[in-house]
Every structure is written in C-alpha cells, then in structure tokens.
C-alpha cells in the first residue's frame, strides 16, 4: 500500500526543542510509526511552517491513501477558521485522486503556550475542527479528528511531544482498522 502523509511540522516530526528545524528520531514520529506498524510504503511530505497550499502538487496516481493534516499554521498566521477552511476546500477540490483515497485529519486543538498566547487561537482551532468535518462530509472525503486522541503538546502549545506522536499513531492506526 502506497501512502502519502501531507502536512506541516507535526507531520514532518519537528522537535520543538530544536531551533534549527530538527526532527524527532524515526521511532518517535507518527509517520514512521505508521510505516513500521503496517509495513506500508509511507512517504512523509510534512514541511515545517506549511500553510494550506494555493496549488495542488501532483500526487502519484498509484497513491492508495493520501493523509492530509493542515490548518494550524493558517490560524497562527491570522486567518480565521472560515478563511482556513475555504483554502482547504480549494486545495482538496483540486486533488485528482479518487476521494475515497483521501483522509483529512483535523489537527488537535492548540493549547496555551509560547506560540499560542490567546484563548482566541484555541477557540479558533476548535472551530476549525468542526468546519473541517463539515467540509469533508460535503466533499465525500474521509475525516477524523486528532483532538480525540489526547495528543500531548509541547511548551509552545502547537507541536506534538514524542509521546504525542505515539498517541497520534495509535489513534490513526485504530481509525484505519
């Protein structure tokens, strides 16, 4: 099975203790745990700072599952949940893969921290989850909410801790069953 994970720093495996874009070890990144546990070929297309793109990359036609988790950076850059979900709508609508091969994951809501100084950002991240779910249902795309998986976040209120990556992988594996 060919899987692509397309997302931001939490897909990349960014270690927030590293100031130069460092990553957690492979055994602590959810994408690599997914590959190890399933035996699937899993490509990590996570990128630090990625916002929802305005253009769609050419995902290979032999992709069996495209996992997309985006939106946090859009909110951190000042977009409203409604603006972020409009961008997500345009992005998802431009993907040429069959919709049954796409899984949208709403990122876990942010918490107060070094990158999240206001309750408004937290509220926006909760609102974004519901808007993502409604969009996925409207488009006929599979959806799951990572907020259900009790993901421990780092001091910044945004990035997964190593235990968070393990919890995310466990939640995703259960969802994929």
From TrEMBL:
Residues 5-167 form the SGNH hydrolase-type esterase domain. SUPFAM superfamilies: SGNH hydrolase. Pfam families: Lipase_GDSL_2. InterPro entries: Ester_Hydrolysis_Enzymes (IPR051532), SGNH_hydro (IPR013830), SGNH_hydro_sf (IPR036514). Transmembrane segments: none annotated. This is GDSL-type esterase/lipase family protein. It comes from Agathobaculum ammoniilyticum.
């Amino acid at each position: 099975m060919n899987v692509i994970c397309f997302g931001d720093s939490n897909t990349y495996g960014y270690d927030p203790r590293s100031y130069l874009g460092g990553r957690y070890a492979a055994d602590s990144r959810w994408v690599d745990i997914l590959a190890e546990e399933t035996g699937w070929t899993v490509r990590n297309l996570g990128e630090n700072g990625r916002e929802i793109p305005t253009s769609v990359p050419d995902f290979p036609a032999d992709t069996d599952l495209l996992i997309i988790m985006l939106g946090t950076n859009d909110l951190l850059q000042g977009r409203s949940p409604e603006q972020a979900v409009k961008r997500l709508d345009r992005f998802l609508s431009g993907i040429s893969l069959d919709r049954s091969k796409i899984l949208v994951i709403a990122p876990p809501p942010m918490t107060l921290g070094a990158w999240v100084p206001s309750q408004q950002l937290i509220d926006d991240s909760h609102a974004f989850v519901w808007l993502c779910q409604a969009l996925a249902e409207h488009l006929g795309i599979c959806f799951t909410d990572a907020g259900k998986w009790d993901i421990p976040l780092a001091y910044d209120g945004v990035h997964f801790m190593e235990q968070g990556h393990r919890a995310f992988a466990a939640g995703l594996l259960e969802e994929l069953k």
